[in-house]
Design brief:
This protein is an alpha+beta fold and 233 residues long. It has one domain: Jelly Rolls (Sandwich), CATH 2.60.120.620. The chain contains four helices and 13 strands. Strands 1, 2, 3, 4, 6, 7, 10 and 13 form an eight-stranded antiparallel beta sheet that branches. Strands 5, 8, 9, 11 and 12 form a five-stranded antiparallel beta sheet that branches. The longest helix is centred in the middle third of the chain and has 24 residues. The chain is globular.
Length: 233
């Protein structure tokens, strides 16, 4: 597999949507070659699957977690994505009054993770079949959390599967939770808030919490990718 396109997609419109919604979509960033290669890795790896328990034990997702570093093309792509996103992450920290600033290179950030006792890689592929779903979750564990992550859809809605929408919920103080459905197609990626994002209040910015999930798959098979830049404890 070649490395996916590395042209920067971060612009004013992208940053504005990420600030306002907690996610921003980049349509068709992954070509057919990358989609087929990632799906092939999953099929090979799931000869010995790791299952991720869901809210109801009857419904489970098949999950393949990448080692650190992941296979070379994916590792290079993740490094490139990190370089595009770390200025946004630092801006969010500044808005929230946090002193920590993310380094320029992903390798430096991963080393800081290890020094903080965070060694478990979190990037993974997930397969959901009919009646499967992914319960609401986030990856905000640890003292060093990168506030942005990347998701990609590797199956075509309406053709490979039905149902299986990618859903986010946002929880603001003293307000109803806000649900969002991301309109993803095969090969699209979305940059989403990992667990929290800044929102401008009357006096200052404050932190709101987010989780994400995948609704129940009605038929077929849904395959997705989640790329994270920090490790869990």
């Amino acid at each position: 597999m070649s490395t996916p396109a590395t042209t920067s997609f971060v612009n004013d419109a992208f940053s504005q949507q990420l600030d306002e919604q907690g996610y921003a979509i980049v349509p068709g960033l992954l070509g057919d070659e990358h989609v087929y290669a990632l799906r092939g890795w999953l099929s090979a790896a799931l000869n010995r699957p790791q299952t991720l328990p869901m809210e109801n034990d009857k419904y489970r997702a098949e999950v393949f977690c990448f080692d650190e570093p992941p296979p070379a093309p994916l590792a290079i792509w993740r490094q490139t994505l990190y370089r595009q996103l770390y200025p946004l992450a630092n801006r969010w920290n500044k808005l929230l009054g946090m002193r920590y600033r993310y380094p320029v290179a992903l390798e430096s950030f991963v080393e800081q993770n290890h020094q903080a006792g965070q060694h478990r890689s979190q990037s993974h592929l997930v397969r959901l079949r009919a009646q499967g779903y992914q319960a609401l979750t986030h990856y905000g564990q640890g003292s060093l959390v990168f506030p942005l992550q990347v998701i990609a859809l590797l199956s075509e809605p309406g053709k490979d599967f039905t149902g299986g929408e990618f859903v986010m919920t946002e929880h603001r103080p003293r307000m109803q939770s806000r649900p969002m459905v991301l309109p993803l197609r095969c090969g699209d990626i979305a940059v989403i808030a990992t667990a929290a994002r800044p929102v401008k209040g009357a006096r200052a910015y404050y932190r709101v919490k987010l989780k994400h999930a995948i609704s129940r798959v009605h038929s077929g098979e849904r395959i997705g990718l989640e790329l994270l830049f920090h490790h869990s404890p």
